[in-house]
C-alpha cells in the first residue's frame, strides 16, 4: 500500500525552495489520490533553541502555508508532530538501533553544529533518528523531499533494515525517497553554488512565501546572473549555476521542464528572461501569500485543524508503535 509521508520544520519562514522542493509536490501527491500524511515537525525544531511564542506562531504560519499551497486537511492528514506521541516513542527505540558512527557521518549535523560540537544539543545529534521514526510510525512507503534530505533518508533505510535484522522481522518498510522534478535543489539568488535557505543571513538570497509582489520582483531582477544569453540545450548551462537555477525555478513554477524553458527562451538575455520569471513568480506565489494571511486571522481554527489531523495520525501510528514495542519485548499490560 502506498502511503506518502513528509515533514517541514516550523523554524523561520517558508522559502521558494521549501515550496518548489516540498509543498508544491505534497499537494500534487494528494491530488493523485494517494494517502498523504504531512507533519509540522515541531520536535525537530526544538533541537536548536526556539523562543516559545515564536515557535507557536511559526507552527501556525506553516500550517497556513501547507493549506494555502494546496494541502487540503480533508484529503491529507495535516498535524504537528508533538501532538502524536508515537514519534517520540519510536525515536527512542531508534536511538537504540542507530549507531553513533552512522550519525557522526551526517553532514547536516556537522553544518548545524559548526565548530562547537561539544555545545550542540543531544537532540540535534539524534535528529535523524526522530526523522526515521516520523516516517516509520506510519509505515510510509514514499517520502517527497528536496535533495538536502537524501542522506537522512538513507539513514532511515539503514535503521529500518537493522531493526528488521536485529529482531528477525520484516516489519518496517524500506522507504523510497522521492527527489524529483526540476527544483529538488533551489539555489541562493546571490550564489548559485549555495542552497536557498531560511538561515542565509542575506534576505536577498531567497524568496520568502511571505514576500509581497514588489519584493519578489525586485529579488529576481537583482538575482546574480552572467552576461551570456540563455543556451539552446541543457549542456549549455554547464558551469553556469545561476543561469541553471533561474531556468529550474521557471520550469518548476510553470510545470514545465528545463529543456522546455530553454526551447522558449534560447538566445534571449536575462534582461528579457527575468521580468517574465518575476511575473510568473508573482502570479504563482501571490495567491498563496494572500491565503496564508487570511488563514492566520483565525489561529484557533488552525489549531483545530491540527488537532483533528493529529487524531487521524494517531489512529494510524498507535497500532504500529504497539507492535514495535511487542517486537522489542517491552510488556504492554495496562
Ligand atoms: P526542512 O524543514 O529544512 O525543509 C522542508 C522541505 O523543503 C526542502 N527544501 C528544499 N528543496 C529544494 N530546494 C531548497 N533550497 C530547499 N530547502 C529546503 C527540504 O528538502 C524538505 O523536503 N528534516 C526535514 C524535516 C523532516 C522530514 C521528516 C522530512 C522531519 N521529519 C520526515 C521528510 C520525512 C527538514 O529539516 O526539512
TrEMBL record:
The keyword Aminoacyl-tRNA synthetase applies. Keywords: Aminoacyl-tRNA synthetase, ATP-binding, Cytoplasm, Ligase, Nucleotide-binding, Protein biosynthesis. The keyword ATP-binding applies. L-tryptophan binds at residue 134. PROSITE patterns: AA_TRNA_LIGASE_I. Its main location: cytoplasm. Its EC number is 6.1.1.2. It is found in: Cytoplasm. It is an enzyme of class 6 (ligase). Pfam families: tRNA-synt_1b. Belongs to the class-I aminoacyl-tRNA synthetase family. This is Tryptophan--tRNA ligase. It comes from Plastorhodobacter daqingensis. The gene is trpS.
